[in-house]
Design brief:
The complex is a heterodimer. Chain A is mostly helical. Chain A has 12 helices and no strands. Chain B is an alpha+beta fold. The mean pLDDT of chain B is 90. Chain B folds into 2 domains: 220 residues, Rossmann fold, CATH 3.40.50; 123 residues, OB fold (Dihydrolipoamide Acetyltransferase, E2P) (Beta Barrel). Chain B is built from 9 helices and 20 strands. The interface between A and B is medium-sized, with 28 and 35 residues.
C-alpha cells in the first residue's frame, strides 16, 4: 500500500506499451479499411466504404463467411456438450486415472496447431473425410472442447455441493437433479462457453487451412487474399472478422464475470412440465 | 409397544481412517422431537446423513416405518432435511424453491402452487413468493428452507444445525416457532445441534454423542441432572467433578475419599469398594455462605476462596478455589449474590446435600 508512486507509474506505462503493441496493428487496419486510397497513406486520403463494398460483392467471401458461420454453429454446441460432460464427470466422480483424464481433456490447445493440422489432414485423408465441411467441424470440436471444459469447470467449482444433495433429498433422482439443478446452475457458463468456442472456431485459421481443401473458411480466404496481393480489402475483411470475434468473446466475459454468479433467472417455467 | 419410526442398529461409518460413527443403536419414536447433540466431529451429522440416505453405513441397519432403508436411495426416502447452509436453489424464486419437492413428485402445477402458497402464508412469506431467495434476510431464507422441506408433508423432518447461521436474537424466536410447528404438525423432528441450550429448549429427547458413540439418551432434565458418565457431565455444562475412591458403601450412599476429604454421595449403579469414581455436583445445587459456618446435619461442606465471577444475567457463576486443580463452579441467582456480597478473594464455605452429589464409576480419559 506504501508503494512509491513512480513504481505504479512505470508499471502503468509498461502496461500501456504492451497493449499498444498488441492493438495498434488492429486499430491501424481498422482505420485503413475506411480509406479511399489504394495504398495506405497518412493522413488518410479520404473516407470511403468501397473496400467493404468489394468484400460484400465478392462471392468467394460470401461463401467463406457462411461456411465459417456454419462450422462455428456446429462445432460450438458439440464442443460445449462434450466439455460440459467432461467437466461434470470431473465434478461428480473420483476415479482411478482422473489426472490423466483431465490432462487429455486439456491437451489439444497445447499441441502446436501445425502438428495438429498435419495430423488431422492425414487422418481425414485416411478415413475419406478430407476437404469436407465436417472435417473442419470435427477438428474445431477437438480444438474448442478444452475451452468449453474449462469454462464450465470454473462454474462448477463455485457450486455448493449441498445443492445437488438437497435435490436428491427432495425426491429428485440423479437425472432429474442434473436437469433441474446442475444445468440451470451452469447455464451462464454454458452460454459463455458457446460464445467462446464459436469465436475460436470462427477465427481459427491454421487447422482449417490444412483440412478445408476447397471449402475455405473466412480466415483461410483472408490468407489467400494476402498471398495474392496486398489489397485494402484485407483491412475491411479483417476488421469484420475481428469485430465478430470480439463481440462473441466480450459477451462471454460479461456473462461469466459481470453477472452475479448467484443471480436468478426465471428458467424454471420453461422446463416446467407436470 | 409400537415399532419406532426410525430404528438404527449397530450402525458404523468411517471416512478413511476416521471412525465417524461407532456401532450406535438408536430408536426414534413417531412424533418425538429428538435432538442429537455433541461436540464437532462426534458423528451427529453423519448419523443424520445416514438417516437421510446421503451416506451409506459401513455396517448395521436403518429401518424406517418397519422397512429396511439402509441402502435406499435418498430420493426414495421422503425424509426432507433442513441444511445448515440452507442449500436453497439460487436460480429459483421463493415460490419455486418451496414447490421443488412437489415438482419432483410430479404434483400438477396448480396444486403445487396452492400447497406452496399455503406454506408461504403459514410462515409469513406470502409477500416474497416472487422474490429471488438471494434477496431475503437470513431469517426469511431459513423459513423458505423450512417450507421447502415441509411442503411435501413428510412424517419426519431432519434438521442439521439449521439455526447456527442466524443472529442470536432470531435464534430464540425460531426455536419457539420450531417447537410450535412440531406440536401442530405432530411429525417427528430429528434435530442435530452442538448447542446445549438449543437441544434442551426444544427437544423432548436428547441424544448425546461423542467420538462416534452415543453417550446418553434421555429427557433434557434427566441428562442435566443425572449424567451417566463424566463426558456427559462435562459437556452439559455447569457440573463440578471431584475424583476419588470409594471408602464405604451404605446402600445408595457412598463415602468417597477425595482430595477434599471424605464426601458423601448418591450412587445410581452398584459400586465396588476402592473403585475409582467421579462425584458430580451441579453448580446450581451448591449453597455458598461466609466461611466458618458449621455444616448442618449430613451436609457436605468445603471451604475455599473466590477467584472469579461470571455475570450471566439473572445468575452469577462464582469460581471458588478449594485446593483442587480446577476451581469449583457455584451458580447462584443474582439477588442472592448481591445479598451475599462476596467479591474476589473472599473466603467462603460451600455446602450441598449428599443427595445432590452423584457418584459415577470413573471413565478412562
Amino acid at each position: 500500500m506504501s508503494r512509491p508512486r513512480s513504481a505504479g507509474f512505470g508499471f502503468g506505462a509498461v502496461l500501456v506499451a504492451i497493449y499498444a503493441f498488441i492493438y495498434a496493428p488492429i486499430v491501424i487496419s481498422f482505420i485503413f479499411s475506411f480509406s479511399a486510397e489504394r495504398f495506405p497513406t497518412i493522413p488518410l486520403g479520404g473516407v470511403s466504404l468501397q473496400w467493404y463494398g468489394f468484400v460484400w460483392s465478392d462471392p468467394d467471401v460470401h461463401a467463406a463467411f457462411w461456411r465459417s458461420v456454419n462450422v462455428a454453429a456446429l462445432a460450438a454446441p458439440i464442443a460445449v456438450f462434450i466439455g460440459f460432460g467432461a467437466a461434470y464427470t470431473d465434478y461428480r466422480s473420483k476415479f482411478f486415472g482422473k489426472a490423466l483424464y483431465l490432462t487429455l481433456g486439456l491437451l489439444p490447445p497445447l499441441v502446436p496447431v501445425l502438428i495438429l493440422g498435419v495430423a488431422m489432414l492425414f487422418f481425414f485423408a485416411r478415413v475419406g473425410l478430407f476437404g469436407g465441411l465436417y472435417s473442419i467441424v470435427i477438428s474445431h470440436v477437438v480444438l474448442c472442447t478444452p475451452f468449453a471444459f474449462t469454462v464450465v469447470r470454473l462454474r462448477l467449482t463455485q457450486v455448493n455441493p449441498a445443492l445437488e444433495q438437497a435435490a436428491w433429498n427432495l425426491g429428485a433422482g440423479p437425472w432429474r437433479t442434473f436437469a433441474s439443478v446442475i444445468v440451470p446452475l451452469c447455464l451462464p457458463a454454458i452460454v459463455a462457453a458457446l460464445l467462446v468456442t464459436a469465436a475460436i472456431s470462427f477465427d481459427e485459421f491454421a487447422v482449417a487451412w490444412f483440412v478445408s481443401g476447397m471449402n475455405e473458411t473466412l480466415p483461410v480466404r483472408v490468407l489467400n487474399f494476402v498471398q495474392g496481393q496486398a489489397s485494402p480489402r484485407i483491412n475491411a475483411i479483417g476488421s469484420l472478422t475481428f469485430t465478430i470475434s470480439m463481440l462473441l468473446v466480450m459477451s462471454a466475459l460479461i456473462l461469466l464475470f459481470f453477472r452475479t454468479p448467484q443471480g436468478s433467472a426465471p428458467i424454471d417455467a420453461a422446463r416446467d412440465k407436470p | 409397544m409400537s415399532e419406532p419410526l426410525i430404528k438404527i442398529r449397530q450402525v458404523s461409518k468411517s471416512f478413511g481412517e476416521f471412525l465417524a460413527v461407532d456401532s450406535i443403536d438408536l430408536d426414534i419414536e413417531e412424533g418425538a422431537f429428538v435432538a442429537i447433540m455433541g461436540p464437532s466431529g462426534c458423528g451427529k451429522t453423519t448419523t443424520l446423513r445416514m438417516i437421510a440416505g446421503l451416506e451409506i453405513p459401513d455396517r448395521g441397519s436403518i429401518h424406517y416405518r418397519g422397512s429396511d432403508v439402509t441402502f435406499a436411495a435418498p430420493w426414495d426416502r421422503r425424509m426432507p432435511l433442513v441444511w445448515q447452509n440452507l442449500a436453497l436453489f439460487p436460480f429459483l424464486n421463493v415460490m419455486e424453491n418451496v414447490a421443488f419437492g412437489l415438482r419432483m413428485a410430479n404434483v400438477p402445477k396448480i396444486e403445487r402452487r396452492e400447497r406452496a402458497h399455503q406454506w408461504l402464508d403459514r410462515l409469513g412469506l406470502a409477500e416474497f413468493s416472487r422474490r429471488s431467495v438471494m434477496d431475503l434476510s437470513g431469517g426469511q431464507q431459513q423459513r423458505v428452507a423450512l417450507a421447502r422441506a415441509l411442503v411435501t408433508e413428510p412424517r419426519v423432518l431432519l434438521l442439521d444445525e439449521p439455526l447456527s447461521a442466524l443472529d442470536s436474537h432470531l435464534v430464540v424466536r425460531m426455536q419457539a416457532e420450531l417447537i410450535n410447528l412440531q406440536r401442530q404438525l405432530g411429525i417427528t423432528f430429528v434435530y442435530v445441534t452442538h448447542s446445549q441450550s438449543e437441544a434442551f429448549a426444544m427437544a423432548d429427547r436428547v441424544v448425546i454423542m461423542d467420538r462416534g458413540r452415543i453417550q446418553q439418551i434421555g429427557a433434557p432434565r434427566e441428562i442435566f441432572r443425572l449424567p451417566t458418565n463424566r463426558f456427559v457431565a462435562e459437556f452439559v455444562g455447569a457440573n463440578n467433578i471431584i475424583s476419588g475412591r470409594v471408602a464405604e458403601l451404605r446402600g445408595e450412599r457412598a463415602v468417597v475419599e477425595t482430595e477434599l476429604g471424605m464426601l458423601c454421595a448418591t450412587s445410581r449403579s452398584p459400586l465396588a469398594l476402592q473403585a475409582e469414581v467421579d462425584i458430580i455436583v451441579g453448580a446450581d445445587l451448591i449453597a455458598v455462605g461466609p466461611d466458618g459456618v458449621f455444616a448442618e446435619d449430613g451436609k457436605q461442606i468445603v471451604s475455599g476462596r473466590v477467584v472469579g465471577e461470571q455475570f450471566l444475567g439473572s445468575s452469577v457463576t462464582l469460581h471458588v478455589d478449594v485446593g483442587m486443580q480446577l476451581p469449583m463452579k457455584v451458580q447462584l441467582p443474582l439477588h442472592k449474590f448481591d445479598q451475599l456480597g462476596v467479591g474476589r478473594g473472599a473466603a467462603v464455605s460451600l455446602s450441598w446435600e449428599p443427595s445432590a452429589a452423584l457418584v459415577l464409576p470413573a471413565t478412562k480419559q
